[in-house]
Design a protein that fits this description.
Layout: E1 15-21, H1 28-42, E2 46-52, H2 59-69, E3 74-79, H3 85-95, E4 100-103, H4 115-123, E5 128-134, H5 140-157, E6 169-172, H6 173-181, H7 189-196, E7 200-206, H8 219-233, H9 236-265, H10 273-306, E8 313-317
Parallel strand pairs: 1-2, 1-4, 2-3, 5-7
Antiparallel strand pairs: 3-8, 4-6, 5-6
Bound molecules: uridine-5'-diphosphate (UDP) and magnesium ion.
Length: 321
């Protein structure tokens, strides 16, 4: 009987670690140093999948050097450009083989030392384990913004994740299979995982400041990501737009009625031009906002129907390839 390629040499590991990397040259050596002892301590078979998301700072070379030292456990996927953190994770999921798949950031803001706690929660029978940051160490503006955004997002998506921004999470093989089936061109992995999960849980983890390198998310990218999240998991923004239109129309009708009566009783009025302009500008603002929301959905539909590849892998560095 023929063995399937690589089966004998490389049995499926119990744990797959998926780590997206975009220009993390400064952090990687520290990550390698802290990650391995934690995984060895766990005493389970594991693989580490790094996805190089089009880094231009030499991160790939560091990853490959690390792989040379640990050929049996480390695999590297090289992207043909920058496709974003969530696409990198998606690609990692596709290549992962573990019974438990854990995602984490490369910048050590999620301490690798928390991995055993995630694994313990998975062993307790949960199919996704999320995390939320306590004592979060980020710039003040980021903390406030993410508090507000977490609140709004939960309202809109109904997913009830405590901390959308925390990527240290574990998923069971079943959930990964379902995520792999959903080939959406913009996505938000933790939300997708939660969507499919039947017994989710969340644990508290500590959080540290980014010590090496800088955040890869500027304000604009962060806002884009949140639109992905909200439009990808809910139609409520569209419904809000409709309701808003209804409200404004009703108010205008009342106003027209009032003006009609006033004209009959008091006579025509000509003052208050600026008030009128003000009201007009406000309504124009609302209209533009609403068109924008509708546009967000249309843009995403357009992306879906074009069916371009969501990411392009240049090369996979693993023994089976
Ligand atoms: N990342 C990525 N592609 C991107 C942006 C980020 O793969 O386009 C990776 C990055 O290398 C890191 C993780 O995603 O491992 C989280 O990024 P970052 O720490 O910059 O985000 P923040 O913690 O500031 O939200
Ligand atoms: Mg970070």
């Amino acid at each position: 009987m023929l063995l399937q390629a690589g089966q004998e040499r490389n049995p499926k590991p119990e744990i797959s670690l998926v780590i997206p990397v975009y220009n993390e040259r400064e952090s990687l050596p520290f990550l390698f140093e802290r990650l391995l002892p934690v995984l060895e301590e766990l005493g389970r078979s594991y693989e580490i999948l790094f996805i190089d998301d089009g880094s231009v700072d030499g991160s790939l070379a560091l990853l490959l050097a690390f792989r040379e030292e640990h050929r049996s456990t480390v695999r590297v996927i090289e992207f043909n450009g920058n496709f974003g953190q969530h696409m990198a994770i998606t690609a990692g999921f596709r290549c992962s083989r573990g019974r438990i798949v854990i995602t984490m950031d490369a910048d050590l803001q999620n301490p690798p030392e928390e991995i055993p706690n995630l694994v313990a929660a998975m062993d307790a029978g949960h199919d996704t384990v999320g995390t939320y940051r306590v004592g979060r160490r980020d710039p003040f503006f980021r903390k406030i913004a993410s508090k507000v955004i977490n609140g709004i997002t939960n309202r809109i998506t109904g997913l009830n994740l405590r901390d959308y921004g925390c990527m240290l999470r574990a998923y069971s093989g079943n959930i990964i299979a379902l995520i792999n089936e959903s080939a959406e061109s913009t996505t938000f992995i933790p939300a997708l995982g939660r969507k499919f999960s039947v017994s989710p849980t969340e644990i508290a983890i500590s959080h540290t400041e980014r010590e090496h390198g800088t955040s890869k998310y500027g304000l604009f990218k962060l806002i884009r990501l949140n639109f992905d999240l909200m439009t990808g998991f809910s139609l409520i923004p569209l419904q809000v737009v409709t309701m808003l239109g209804l409200l404004v129309a009703t108010l205008s009708l009342l106003f027209v009625a009032y003006l009609g009566v006033r004209r009959l009783v008091v006579g025509p009025e000509a003052e208050g031009v600026f008030t009128l302009m003000n009201v007009n500008f406000f309504l124009m603002g609302i209209t533009m906002f609403c068109v924008g929301i509708v546009g967000e959905y249309i843009g995403r539909i357009y992306q879906e129907v074009r069916r371009r590849p969501r990411f392009v892998i240049r090369k996979v560095y693993d023994d089976e390839a």
